[in-house]
Automatic annotation (TrEMBL):
Keywords per UniProt: ATP-binding, Cell inner membrane, Cell membrane, Membrane, Nucleotide-binding, Transport
Stretches assigned to the ABC transporter domain: 8-235
Keyword Transmembrane helix assigned: no
Organism: Actibacterium naphthalenivorans
Similarity annotation: Belongs to the ABC transporter superfamily. Macrolide exporter (TC 3.A.1.122) family.
GO molecular function: ATP binding; ATP hydrolysis activity; transmembrane transporter activity
Protein's name according to its UniProt entry: Putative ABC transport system ATP-binding protein
Entry GO terms, CC: membrane protein complex; plasma membrane
Transmembrane intervals: none
InterPro entries in the record: AAA+_ATPase, ABC_transporter-like_ATP-bd, ABC_transporter-like_CS, ABC_transpr_LolD-like, MacB-like_ATP-bd, P-loop_NTPase
Pfam families: ABC_tran
Claim: Nucleotide-binding is one of the keywords in the record: yes
Organism placement in taxonomy: Bacteria, Pseudomonadati, Pseudomonadota, Alphaproteobacteria, Rhodobacterales
Length: 235
């Protein structure tokens, strides 16, 4: 995918769950444009719509109405397999709970998305080692998650997100399970990757001091964007 279109564009996105008295309007006409190379933090109270919009961006959920464009392509017009390819080839995911396979080495965990791409073993290992090197953990490649600290496990998860060369990393509360010092290390890492690799990062967080690492803050309230401001960004 190439061109001069914004990387991500949401136009009038709504998401409704349930019907009748059980109806919940999670998103109420969201307009959001993200250009390549941005680091965007999404904040808001529980139920504000921030997780729903991340699921839409990650092609894990479909909007009820509105248009989602990714590099100018209308995602709503893609079939199931095409959406899976978009996720696999253009998006990297980082979660609060790391989501690493327990009895599998760091290297093998990072290789996983490359297996789905059908790459040969030697190429997978080379790319996975490069990704681990970028997060400072190539020396722990043969350790499994039980032998790694929480911060190191999250670094492995970030390496896994990086391995396939995504255009965007979607990070959902990436420091939620970490203490303050480890949280700052992870945010320094993400900020550095954003600057040196020019990877677009969209991060959901409820922690204001973590959001300060981003260079744009989007605040959700009751299913819509209440505030969208540029910030200097830490790190």
């Amino acid at each position: 995918m190439a061109g001069t279109a914004p990387l991500i564009e949401l136009r009038g996105i709504t998401k409704v769950y349930g019907a009748g008295e059980a109806e919940v309007r999670a998103l109420r006409g969201v307009d959001l444009t993200i250009t390549a190379g941005e680091f965007v933090a999404i904040m808001g109270p529980s139920g504000s719509g921030k997780s729903t919009v991340m699921n839409v961006l990650g092609c894990l959920d479909t909007p009820t109405s509105g248009t989602f464009l990714f590099e100018g392509v209308d995602v709503g017009k893609l079939d199931h397999d095409q959406r899976a390819l978009l996720r696999r080839n253009y998006l990297g995911f980082v979660f609060q709970g790391y989501n690493l396979l327990p009895r599998t080495t760091a290297l093998e965990n990072v290789e996983l998305p490359l297996i789905y791409k059908g790459l040969p073993r030697g190429e997978r290992q080379r790319m996975a080692l490069e990704a681990l090197d970028k997060v400072g953990l190539s020396h722990r490649a043969d350790h499994d998650p039980s032998q790694l600290s929480g911060g190191q496990q999250q670094r492995v998860a970030i390496a896994r997100a990086l391995a396939g060369g995504p255009d965007v990393i979607l990070a959902d509360e990436p420091t939620g399970n970490l203490d303050t010092e480890r949280s700052r290390e992870i945010m320094d890492l993400l900020s550095g990757l954003n600057k040196t690799e020019n990877i677009t990062i969209v991060m959901v967080t409820h922690e204001e001091d973590m959001a300060e690492y981003a260079r744009r803050l989007v605040s959700f309230v009751d299913g819509h964007i209440e505030q969208d401001t540029k910030t200097p960004g830490k790190g």
